[in-house]
Design brief:
Elements lengths: L1 E5 L3 E8 L14 E5 L1 H11 L4 E7 L1 H14 L3 E5 L5 E8 L5 E5 L7 H14 L5 E5 L10 H11 L4 E4 L2 H9 L4 E2 L3 H8 L4 H11 L3 E5 L5 E4 L4 E5 L11 H15 L4 H16 L19 E4 L1
Parallel strand pairs: 1-4, 1-8, 2-6, 4-5, 8-9, 9-10, 10-11
Antiparallel strand pairs: 2-3, 6-7, 11-12, 12-13, 13-14
Helix pairs in contact: 1-8, 3-4, 4-5, 5-6, 6-7, 8-9
Length: 304
């Protein structure tokens, strides 16, 4: 069983337009609305791949109620903790003409010490029976950067490996706590380490204590870096679509590999790269195209 934690969930709205023009008035179809945030997307993908997953998040306000209703309708197993502030929204505009997606993420409502304690308690209660914990996404205002690291230590005390997708101080502290996998993208890694070279940046996180750094490179594929190896994987050509859930699909791929006992570095990287590419083909985050397993045969891997 995979447990995912989303510290800063969002109600995702996705618009598809024929051609986006800044400053223009655009007529669009009704937005696709679903409960989102990185950890929720990871749980959805893991479930599609056949693994039981439980999404944990704290939600509040009118958007929180809409979030809860959609999650219930989806059938995804979840634990929602009441939060004092309203759940944020995220808006993605997918431009068919350019193939680009513009995303506007609200920062989220500030959390209180009670909010933080309630979320941590829900995670703690869900750990028995879990085989992997995923902590994924931004931290809301007021959430200490040590939150991810605290969950890493809690899970490790229970013998459960942890995957962390965070940024800056939260990512560094999670690495120092010994996160089994850290998964930034290139921009997040640069913001965290100050280094433009993603392999060098990944090695900083390894030096802090992480065991594996998986780095998304967008159309250029993905890196897997350990203390002993650095591999680069990519598809034969980039796939056009909506990239908003690609990184979450990669995290789900690694979590599924952990649960199924596949600890081969090359195999994990191939799966993460293929699932990430597959997610681009879907209109909303948290889904894989039907051929996601077949795409694994198309991934090329080389030493980085």
């Amino acid at each position: 069983m995979i447990i995912t934690v989303t510290p800063n969930p969002a109600l995702d709205l996705t618009y598809h337009v024929d051609a986006f023009e800044a400053g223009a008035s655009l007529r669009v179809d009704t937005a696709r609305v679903r409960a989102g945030g990185k950890g929720v997307n990871v749980a959805r993908v893991a479930r599609q791949a056949g693994e039981r997953s439980i999404a944990i998040a704290a939600v509040g306000g009118p958007t929180g109620r809409e979030f809860a209703d959609e999650l219930k309708t989806s059938g995804l197993d979840h634990v929602l903790v009441p939060a004092s502030g309203a759940t944020r929204r995220s808006v993605a505009v997918v431009d068919a003409a350019s193939g680009e997606t513009t995303i506007m993420n609200e920062r989220g409502a500030p959390v209180t010490a009670d909010d933080r304690a309630a979320l941590a308690s829900a995670v703690r209660a869900s750990l028995p029976g879990a085989r992997c914990l995923v902590v994924s996404g931004s931290l809301p205002p007021g959430m200490p950067t040590a939150f991810c690291a605290e969950l890493v230590r809690e899970a490790h005390d229970a013998g459960i490996p942890v995957v962390v997708d965070a940024v800056e101080d939260a990512l560094v502290e999670a690495a120092r706590a010994g996160a089994d996998v850290v998964k930034p993208n290139r921009a997040e890694l640069r913001a965290t380490t100050g280094l433009a070279d993603p392999i060098a940046g990944a090695r900083v996180l390894l030096k802090h204590g992480a065991r594996l750094a998986l780095v998304s490179l967008g159309a250029e594929g993905m890196l897997a870096v350990t203390r002993d190896a650095a591999l680069h994987a990519r598809m034969p050509q980039p796939l056009d679509g909506n990239p908003t859930g690609a990184g979450d699909a990669a995290v789900a791929a690694v979590a599924v590999s952990i649960v199924t006992g596949d600890d081969d570095l090359r195999s994990r990287l191939v799966r993460a790269t293929a699932w990430s590419a597959s997610a681009v083909l879907r209109p909303v985050a948290g889904e894989l195209a039907d051929n996601f397993r077949d795409l694994e045969h198309n991934v090329g891997v080389m030493d980085a």
